[in-house]
Amino acid sequence: MASSRSPLAALATPKSIVIFGASPDRRSMGGVLTDNLIGGSYSGAVHLVNPKYRQVGKQTCHTNLAAVGCQVDLALIATPAESVGEILEQCGAARVKAAVIYSAGFSETGERGQQREAELKEIADRHHIRLLGPRAVGFLRPHLGVNAVPFQRAFAAGNLAFVSQSGAVCTGILDWVFADDFALSALFAPGNGCDLDLPEFLDFLARDVETQSILLYLEGPRDRRRFMSALRAAARMKPVVVVKSGRHPLSARVAGAHIGVVVGDDEVFDAALRRAGALRVRSIGDLFSAARALTSRQRPRGNRLAVVTNGGGPAVAAADEAAERGIHLARLGADTCAALAVRLPASWSMDNPVDILFDADPERFRLAIELCSADDGIDGTLVIISPSAFFDPPAVAQAIVQLALTEPKPLLACVIGEGSVREARQVLAAAGVPTFRTPESAVAAFAFMVDFVRHQELLLETPPAQMSHRAADVTTARAIVDQALRHGRVELDTAEGERLLAAFHIPLASASRKLGGKLREIRVALKNDPGFGPVIIVGEGGSAADIAHAGAVVLPPLNHRLIIDLFRQPAVTRLFEARMASPAISPPLLSQVLQRVSELACEMPCIDNLEINPLCGDGGQLYAESVRITLRPAGVATWRYGHMAICPYPLALESSFITRAGTSYRIRPILHEDATAFQMFIRRLSNRSRYCRFFSAAQELTPRELSIRTQIDYDREMLLIAVLTTADEQEEIVAEADYSVLPDDSTCEFGVAVADSFAGQGIGTRILQQLMEAARRRGLTRIVGQVLSDNDNMQALMESLGFSVGMTDEAQLLDVSRRL
């Protein structure tokens, strides 16, 4: 999406601001905002509106917006609720593009407030104004000098973005964390969030060059599917760390009442975050511990940690925390132990944790860290420094920094104490070494790194809806469901349920097996979550399911890699451990059934709940002994997989064709493993072709741009590639075409490029036709783009495909568009 079309462009990068409710009283919201913007480092124009004053400080204060007499990008509205509607009308007449509403008295106050908020939204939609709020805390953009929050303090510009659904949490964190340890690239606190909300913030921050990491404090996303899509896109580009309140039923009800949404099942939310590539932590303190850990360039390959310490007590605390977090204290290799034994005093611990004793000097620290880091059985090293008269803490810190510059594995530091070690802590933090005050928080941070790596691996998995070698009989399955719904039934009878399972090749237990009494039992369920769509649950079966209804949760679509990760969840691990004496239910057999249930989840949006209980085995196959299926009417999804939080790989968009020259090509959606081939395609384009495609002279894509284009969410964007199979059985990309869904969710913006040596063969026409078909299937109704005015070939292609061509404000660009 072009940055100029970002919903947050006018809000986050305003060239001029007007404050409604401006005041000389610094105890009022309008007074604080006036002081922040006029007295701060914002370089744009600031206009003041309040009929009570003619002047605030040295600046003129106007009676209304019309009196300002010049164009304004952003309005900050700090007036009583009943006046906000009229102010928004003023903004609409003056073509203001965005507004922040700080006023309370809207949906949080009951029916009248909800009506008032709806009226605001109608005014804003009519005038194309994007809203932050009502009841917003506001936003910060320190790099631009914009402080639009009720907090009178200068904030250092940094690389960490923070988004909070709680105003109180937001201001508390501003006063606490960002005082010295961290610096901000951006902060958004939307309050009621009736318009701009989490998806828009994530989209903006994902592409913001100042932001390196994103932290979220959530109580409950209002639109979970849009949130999931935006979260996956953001997590592909930079670390996203989430703390979510409402983990338990009571706190979830409190959180839901606070933000006015249904908070939902916490286990489902947890599963969604794993698939999104984000890291979830339990507390606000953990949020910033994780932020520290993920500033490191290094990532662990596994969970094997070495601890180097000059004190036994802190090492014990680290060991306890490692056990709690599932972190393995690695066994030192024989060569490592031998080398340490030669170089350390005889009374060293001779094991991990590596206790180098209280009188350790910087050289002893350096030696132990270096040897542990070189051990192939170790994935990361934690150094614990306790103050001592035998060494200079900054000198130890410098030794750690020097090692961290070349060390490929994560290196973390815990510096215990305060006054005597403050400088050492500053040296480490300045060099980007994750640094902590307690052993527990340092070990937790390493655990966060391990989890983050695993979640990033899951993010790359985008299976097709159906993967099994025997295709499901979807037509028969849908006919069964449709007939029941036509007759007003929301539950399938036993025979219908068994026929539906058979259509997806899930075996049923015969009468003889049911009577055998020798089978072991598991429960597999599919349920429709109100926000995230279908989720799959695996847990204890039979009568035990009535006692403990919980289990491991995963979002479809699934493949082998995702199912293996599911089997690592404690609830499933315990199931297999309890059945080790019998091979009746084995991981490979369960994997086959879960793959089929995943296919059913993808293809059958009308399934509300499906429960196979028990799922039994005889050592050779698994059987559904009993199944219960309830239905819901079809939703309003705009396309085949619109009911799912994670869009499957769109296998149906793959096709082959032969050009006029007789060469065979294949067109398919891009996959993340195409990154190298796609970069080669870009490099091989002529300078002219690259400029026509990207309006840039860059010779290749940056790693970030390459990630954006090859790791996509097929629901919000599409990139098709035309590939030619070479003599050595490799795929060469010869053309690409993509679209991005615009905020109205009915229009997409497209681009296309064909390799110069393959031009004139009709490949561009064919790939664009297939791209438009993909957009139609997605439910889009219009496709738009821009073409250089001197690109005659592209203009001819557009006209041949029925696009209309029009002028833009820029002489060198033409707008092209077409109904789909």
TrEMBL record:
It comes from the Bacteria. The keyword Nucleotidyltransferase does not apply. GO terms for molecular function: acyltransferase activity, transferring groups other than amino-acyl groups; ATP binding; ligase activity. Residues 665-820 form the N-acetyltransferase domain. Coiled coil: none annotated. InterPro entries: Acyl-CoA_Synth/Transferase, Acyl_CoA_acyltransferase, CoA-bd, GNAT_dom, NAD(P)-bd_dom_sf, Succ_CoA_lig_flav_dom, Succinyl-CoA_synth-like. Gene3D superfamilies: 3.40.630.30, ATP-grasp fold, B domain (3.30.470.20), NAD(P)-binding Rossmann-like Domain (3.40.50.720), Succinyl-CoA synthetase domains (3.40.50.261). Keywords: ATP-binding, Ligase, Nucleotide-binding. PANTHER family: 3-HYDROXYPROPIONATE--COA LIGASE [ADP-FORMING] (PTHR43334:SF1), ACETATE--COA LIGASE [ADP-FORMING] (PTHR43334). This is Putative CoA-binding domain protein.
